[in-house]
Amino acid sequence: MNNILNDNEYDSNVELPDKEPLFNLPYLYINTKNKHYKPLKSYIKNNIVVATSHRDLPTIEKVEYNRNSGYGCCYAYGTLEEFGQRWSKLDVKIIKPVTNEEIVKVLEHKVKTIENLTLKEALKEVDGDFSLLIEAFELPVNFYD
C-alpha cells in the first residue's frame, strides 16, 4: 500500500512508500521528534541507512543503541549497496525519518479522499488521538509526537 503525500499546489504526489524499492526492504518510519530517533539520527546521513531487526545483522558497523524501536532491538548501519542484498534475506526494517508535518499531510489527504472529511473532523471522531488515525489509515509510521 502506498500512502500519498500531496506536497504542493501543482498536485504532484510524494509517497510514503512501505518499502525500499531496490532491495524490497520494509521501512520503519520514526518521527524525527521521537526519543527513539534522537540517538539514531547521527548515523543516518548521505547514503547511510540504519536497519533494525530482532537479531544481529551482518555488518561491520553496529549502532550503539539497545532500545526496542517497536520492531527490534538490534541495529546496524551501512549503505544499501553494501548490505542491502544480505539484509533483504533477513527480517529487517530500514529506519526512515518522518516529520509531524509529513504525517499530518498524509492524514489530511487520506481522510479527504477516503472519508470525505477534514482532518479536524476526523480527529474529533477519535478524540484527538493521531495514533488512532495513523492505525486506521495503515500509515507506516511508528510514532507521532
What attributes does this structure have?
single chain; 145 residues; five-stranded mixed sheet; 7 strands; 25% strand; elongated
Oligomeric grouping of the chains: single chain
Biggest sheet overview: 5 strands, mixed
Secondary-structure element string: EEEEEEHEHHH
Runs with pLDDT <50, length 5+?
A: 1-14
Number of strands: 7
Task: Provide a count of the helices.
Answer: 4
What portion of the residues fall into strands of 2 or more residues?
A: 15-25%
Rg (C-alpha, Å) = 16 Å
Strand numbers in spatial order across the main sheet: 3-4-7-5-6
The residue fraction in helices comes out at 25-40%
Distance between the termini: 23 Å
Mean pLDDT: 81
Shape: elongated
Which structural category fits the helices and strands? alpha+beta
Molecular structure report:
This protein is an alpha+beta fold and 145 residues long. The protein has 4 helices and 7 strands, in the order E-E-E-E-E-E-H-E-H-H-H. It has helices at residues 80-88, 100-115, 119-125, 130-136, and strands at residues 3-6, 13-16, 19-20, 25-31, 48-53, 74-79, 92-98. It has a 5-stranded mixed beta sheet with strand order 3-4-7-5-6. A two-stranded antiparallel ribbon has the order 1-2. A hairpin with a 6-residue loop joins strand 1 and strand 2. The longest helix has 16 residues, at 100-115. The chain is elongated, with a radius of gyration of 16 Å.
